[in-house]
Every structure is written in structure tokens, then in C-alpha cells.
């Protein structure tokens, strides 16, 4: 029995069709030996074309893509990388693995992404990059950040793991920084189970990243098993890439599904004292995670909303914590926007084929909590 009134609502799940299953089956049957890279190369070519970039390297995760990219930039011990305080740990961990220091700054209240003024104030002679993370599909102020970067000689990296489908004034998120990283984890808009991709328009950076991604073996090296440096092993498998090829063929449909789910929530919740993911003029939001931020002047009990979800068999998903509130980081209570977001915001369940009835159950929980008399 799968009664729509009580069935479990996951916070997200992938959309897999016979197309992906067919490619995965073919990869499992035939994608070995001299064909063991076929789907990987096809996936990279499709993604390059989707994004409008010159180079792409499929990886085992976005974390790996960020690690390789930052290593290729030469980021190392003593260097600093500026990023938003409210973020998933995956954006910060590669910086620390390279021996560099993540410098956390507060975010903007409307976009939940880097505050450019705070970024500029945080730049020092050791700053090697600004890491622009497009949170939940929302876009960073890329023009301002790149202008600040140009003035200080500091490149902007885009962590676009959550920004499939997001577009900044005609350019896809992830295509505008010195490099971009995407995730194809099972919760993301496009999935390969686990997976990621490194993208760039910079020929030199691409060659360095390619060598690092292949255990330090340079393209064109005639000797077998001859690494010229110590690299990484963060490759995507042909099997995963096969699923990815099916997903990229369907990417417009996958993005449209996420946008449809957001619009339905946005419309139903528009009269409540809350804000949702913004879509600034000239931009498109891929809406990876529809998110509510309850207004400051309204009392909001996040635990009560989580309980209400749980009682109706709905997965509740809290907004990220400020990284500075985690045990591995120095506290920054002065980052008031980041702390307020983590107290007052929640992600709402969303998957590409979520039904109106399922969304109505989520909406009813939010309404009950925020409009007690309704
Ligand atoms: C999911 C995510 C990552 C990490 O992706 P993995 O593929 O799990 O390594 C990095 N950055 C952001 C912003 C993410 O949402």
C-alpha cells in the first residue's frame, strides 16, 4: 500500500529512467578494455557543451574536483582562501588538506552567499583565491567578486555543486571562475550516485589539473607508470559516467522539475512571514533546494517544524550550520547573518517528479506552524 496521505516524503531523490539504466547496463556489459573510457569522455564532452566551457575532468566527487583545482592553482601551506561562513564542510576541507587556511566571512541576508564587502576586507597578501559557493542554487555576486579579485590579483573559484541550472546574466554558474566544481552526489540535481566534475577555460590550469588527477602522470608522457609529481586518484568510473550521460541528455527536464517544485511552494507560501531563494533580475536560479527563511520579527521554533514533518513522515532538512560553529573552526559570533540563517531557515523536500499532493503535505506543516489559527 502506498497511500499518498502517509507515504514517506524524502528531502530529495534522483530521477532515473530507462535511459540511464540502458547506458549503465551497456557500460557494465561492454565498457571495459579499450572502451573503459568511452562514457567518461562522452560525459565530459556533454557537460562542456551544456556549460559552455573549454575543459572538463570528471571526478569521483566535487570535493575531489575542488582539491585538484586548488592544488593545480598552487594553493598550499600558509595561503588563505576566503569563503562564506555558512557552507557545507566539503567546500572548506580541500583548503585545509592543502595546508592553507579557510578565512570565513559573513554572507548576505538575501542570497545567503558571500558578502563582497566582507570579502574585500578579509583579503591579505596571503589570499590566493575567493571561493564563491552558490548556496542552494542562489548565485553569488559574481561581477562584484571578480572585480574585487581583479583589483587584488586574486582569482574567483566557483563551487557550483548546488547550482546546476543557475545562470548569471547569460552565463551558466560554474563557467565564470578560474575553475568550477560540480557534484553528482545522489542528492544533487544531476546524479551519478557519487561523482563530480572540474571545469575551466584556462588551458594551463587544465593541463596541471589533468596531470594531478591522473596520479601525477602527464598527458603525452611516453614512459608507462611515470608520475612526474605526486597527484591524486579522484576519477569517475565509466559506469557512473554512463548514468551521467543519460542525466545530461535529460538535464533541461531535471532543471525544469526543480524549478516547478520551487514555484509551487513559493506560490503557496507567499503570504507567510518568510523569504525563499531569490532570483535577481538577469539571473536564473536552478533551485536545487527550495528553502524558507522565517522573518526576524516572527517567533520560529525550528525544532517544532522538524517534529511536525516527522509526525507526517516527511524528511526535515536543516540549513547548514555556520562552519565557525563547528569544533574544527574558530568561533565567529559576529557573523550575525550566518548565525541567524542557521536558526531561522529550513530546506523543503524537493525532487524532480514530486507531486502537488506531496508538496501540499509539506505546505500544510509550514502553515500550521506559522499561521497557528489557520
Ligand atoms: C555537495 C556539495 C559538495 C560536495 O560534493 P561531493 O560530490 O559530495 O564531494 C561541495 N560543495 C557544495 C556546495 C555541495 O553542496
Automatic annotation (TrEMBL):
Organism whose genome encodes this protein: Rhodanobacter soli
Family membership: Belongs to the DegT/DnrJ/EryC1 family.
Identification of the protein by name: Perosamine synthetase
UniProt entry keywords in alphabetical sequence: Aminotransferase, Pyridoxal phosphate, Transferase
Enzyme class: transferase
UniProt GO MF annotations: GDP-4-dehydro-6-deoxy-D-mannose-4-aminotransferase activity
Enzyme Commission number(s) from the entry: 2.6.1.102
A Pfam entry, by short name: DegT_DnrJ_EryC1
Residues annotated as signal peptide: none
Amino acid at each position: 500500500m502506498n497511500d499518498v496521505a502517509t507515504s514517506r516524503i524524502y528531502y530529495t531523490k534522483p530521477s532515473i529512467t530507462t535511459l540511464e539504466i540502458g547506458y549503465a547496463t551497456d557500460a557494465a556489459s561492454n565498457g571495459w578494455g579499450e572502451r573503459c573510457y568511452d562514457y567518461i569522455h562522452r560525459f565530459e564532452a556533454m557537460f562542456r557543451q551544456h556549460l559552455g566551457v573549454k575543459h572538463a575532468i570528471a571526478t569521483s566527487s566535487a570535493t575531489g574536483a575542488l582539491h585538484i583545482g586548488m592544488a593545480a592553482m598552487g594553493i598550499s601551506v600558509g595561503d588563505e582562501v576566503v569563503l562564506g561562513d555558512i557552507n557545507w564542510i566539503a567546500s572548506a576541507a580541500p583548503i585545509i588538506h592543502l595546508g592553507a587556511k579557510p578565512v570565513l566571512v559573513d554572507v548576505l541576508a538575501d542570497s545567503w552567499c558571500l558578502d563582497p564587502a566582507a570579502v574585500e576586507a578579509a583579503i591579505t597578501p596571503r589570499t590566493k583565491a575567493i571561493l564563491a559557493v552558490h548556496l542552494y542554487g542562489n548565485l553569488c555576486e559574481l561581477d562584484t567578486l571578480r572585480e574585487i579579485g581583479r583589483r587584488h590579483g586574486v582569482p574567483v573559484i566557483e563551487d557550483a555543486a548546488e547550482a546546476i541550472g543557475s545562470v548569471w546574466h547569460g552565463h551558466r554558474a560554474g563557467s565564470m571562475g578560474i575553475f568550477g566544481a560540480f557534484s553528482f552526489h545522489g542528492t544533487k540535481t544531476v546524479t551519478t550516485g557519487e561523482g563530480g566534475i572540474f571545469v575551466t577555460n584556462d588551458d594551463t590550469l587544465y593541463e596541471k589539473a589533468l596531470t594531478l588527477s591522473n596520479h601525477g602522470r602527464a598527458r603525452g608522457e611516453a614512459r608507462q607508470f611515470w608520475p612526474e609529481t605526486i597527484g591524486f586518484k579522484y576519477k569517475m568510473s565509466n559506469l557512473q559516467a554512463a548514468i551521467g550521460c543519460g542525466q545530461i541528455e535529460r538535464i533541461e527536464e531535471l532543471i525544469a522539475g526543480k524549478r516547478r517544485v520551487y514555484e509551487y511552494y513559493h506560490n503557496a507560501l507567499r503570504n507567510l512571514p518568510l523569504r525563499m531563494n531569490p532570483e535577481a533580475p538577469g539571473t536564473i536560479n536552478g533551485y536545487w533546494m527550495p528553502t524558507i527563511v522565517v522573518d526576524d520579527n516572527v517567533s520560529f521554533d525550528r525544532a517544532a517544524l522538524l517534529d511536525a514533518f516527522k509526525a507526517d513522515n516527511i524528511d526535515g532538512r536543516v540549513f547548514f550550520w555556520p562552519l565557525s560553529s563547528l569544533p574544527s573552526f574558530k568561533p565567529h559570533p559576529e557573523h550575525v547573518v550566518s548565525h541567524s540563517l542557521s536558526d531561522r531557515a529550513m530546506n523543503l523536500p524537493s525532487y524532480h517528479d514530486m507531486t502537488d499532493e506531496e508538496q501540499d503535505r509539506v505546505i500544510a506543516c509550514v502553515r500550521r506552524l506559522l499561521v497557528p489559527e489557520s
